[in-house]
């Protein structure tokens, strides 16, 4: 085994030296990167979230079964080749962003290989290495303060947990209305997005309802401007989930993000690195952050509530008059989002066991037990990925707000949003948090 690794190392070093001598182009490095990501996917089933490049590259990766060690070594070679290049242009030029992006994606690939071959990292080290960001620390006292506000908003007998669950259970979409409610939401999100972003006319998606997953919904981008959106019905879907999932997974979230990358970069510029999406990489913070912030772009202040009352609540068979109090409580609950990061940090750093983490989520994020347990399963599978949702949203929101300025101009916001979705930008390139 050892001999084989050494032999592979020499081979790769020789290959690397040859390529270095030949000064590989960015396109060559990009292709090698795609092949390494596909090679990593052979070892790590969750790694390749989407791929629509040449099918022969995938077949070759599957047949080649490059070892993790060799993938790490080849990634090192690519990283060195990239660092030997100094792209010209202004900081925001796409060519420079591409160079930074590839460097960041390859660094994350090397980190993932290191993790899979035994390197231990803290939660923060891991999120920095994989997602180019570190989540801020929040204390129990901060979550207790939100808890006190919820106590006031939901008076009555029983524990706050029980009252909150009783309250939330009034806003569950009945299973037999789920499809029509979700369809109404996705139609609206799509129509609003198309008012501002031109998409290829052949773009399309299908929706599937599935069970037995650790996530609540997933977009599987197929290439050719097509997505399969899956909605998990293991746990009840509450009414706010309709717009949230439709925007996040569909328009202007993951589906639109992937469509724009394919249109502008993969096809438009033949930048093949965008034909693959490695899940455990900085790209995920941009993907999840834009998918979540896109909800606010699509339904700015006030419009969400009006639309819920006019369309979504009736579709779900719920009383529109109850929407304002529901959204007031949701506003408070959203402030628990960083409690999810804290739970993951404590759990992955070995400070809490799995069941103590579920307890912690029940206590500080007010999650009912089944949801807390589902979250622990999610953390087991996706680890520090959890920061991409809320930290990603906040970083994307701050970046876009800074660019748009105080005017709050909706069409400028959409322009900047589309620009971000169409460009290779690393989380650290979004500016200071
Ligand atoms: Zn997502």
Descriptive account of the structure:
This protein has 433 residues and is mainly alpha-helical. It contains 19 helices and five strands. The radius of gyration is 22 Å and the shape is globular. The chain starts with a helix and ends in a 12-residue tail after the last helix. Zinc ion (ZN) binds at residues 248, 254, 288, 291.
Write the layout of secondary structure elements.
Blueprint: H1 2-22, H2 26-43, E1 48-51, H3 55-64, H4 68-83, H5 94-116, H6 123-131, H7 140-153, H8 160-169, H9 178-194, E2 204-210, E3 217-223, E4 226-232, H10 240-250, H11 254-267, E5 276-278, H12 283-298, H13 303-315, H14 323-334, H15 337-348, H16 354-364, H17 369-382, H18 387-404, H19 410-421
Parallel strand pairs: 2-4
Antiparallel strand pairs: 1-5, 3-4
Helix pairs in contact: 1-4, 2-3, 2-4, 2-5, 4-5, 5-6, 9-10, 9-13, 10-12, 12-18, 12-19, 15-16, 16-17, 18-19
The protein binds zinc ion.
Zinc ion (ZN) binds at residues 248, 254, 288, 291.
């Amino acid at each position: 085994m050892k001999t084989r690794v050494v032999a592979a190392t020499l081979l790769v070093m020789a290959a690397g030296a040859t390529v270095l001598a030949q000064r590989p182009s960015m396109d060559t490095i990009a292709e090698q990167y795609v092949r390494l990501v596909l090679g990593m996917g052979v070892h790590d089933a969750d790694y390749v979230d989407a791929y629509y490049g040449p099918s022969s590259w995938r077949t070759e990766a599957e047949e080649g079964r490059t070892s993790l060690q060799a993938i790490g070594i080849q990634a090192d070679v690519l990283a060195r080749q990239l660092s030997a290049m100094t792209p010209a242009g202004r900081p925001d030029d796409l060519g420079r962003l591409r160079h930074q992006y590839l460097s960041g994606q390859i660094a994350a690939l090397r980190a993932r290989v290191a993790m899979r071959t035994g390197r231990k990292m803290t939660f923060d080290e891991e999120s920095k290495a994989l997602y180019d960001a570190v989540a801020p620390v929040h204390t129990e006292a901060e979550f207790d303060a939100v808890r006190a506000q919820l106590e006031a908003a939901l008076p009555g007998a029983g524990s706050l947990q029980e009252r909150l669950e009783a309250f939330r259970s009034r806003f569950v979409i009945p299973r037999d209305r789920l499809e029509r409610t979700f369809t109404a939401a996705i139609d609206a999100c799509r129509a609003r997005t198309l008012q501002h972003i031109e998409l290829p006319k052949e773009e399309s998606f299908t929706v599937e309802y599935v069970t037995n997953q650790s996530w609540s919904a997933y977009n599987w981008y197929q290439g050719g401007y097509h997505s399969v959106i899956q909605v998990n019905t293991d746990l009840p879907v509450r009414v706010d989930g309709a717009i949230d999932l439709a925007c996040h997974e569909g328009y202007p979230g993951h589906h639109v993000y992937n469509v724009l990358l394919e249109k502008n970069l993969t096809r438009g510029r033949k930048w093949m690195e965008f034909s693959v999406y490695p899940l455990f990489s900085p790209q995920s913070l941009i993907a999840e952050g834009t998918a979540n912030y896109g909800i606010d772009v699509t339904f700015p202040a006030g419009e969400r509530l009006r639309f819920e009352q006019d369309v979504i609540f009736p579709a779900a068979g719920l009383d529109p008059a109850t929407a304002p109090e529901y959204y007031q409580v949701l506003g408070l609950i959203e402030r628990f989002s960083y409690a999810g990061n804290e739970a993951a940090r404590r759990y992955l750093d070995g400070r809490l066991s799995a069941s103590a983490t579920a307890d912690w989520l029940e206590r500080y994020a007010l999650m009912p037990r089944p949801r807390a347990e589902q979250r622990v399963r999610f953390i087991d599978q996706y680890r520090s990925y959890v920061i991409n949702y809320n930290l990603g949203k906040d970083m994307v929101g701050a970046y876009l707000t800074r660019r748009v300025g105080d005017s709050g101009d909706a069409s400028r916001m959409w322009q900047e949003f589309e620009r971000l979705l169409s460009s290779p930008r690393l989380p650290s390139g979004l500016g200071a948090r």
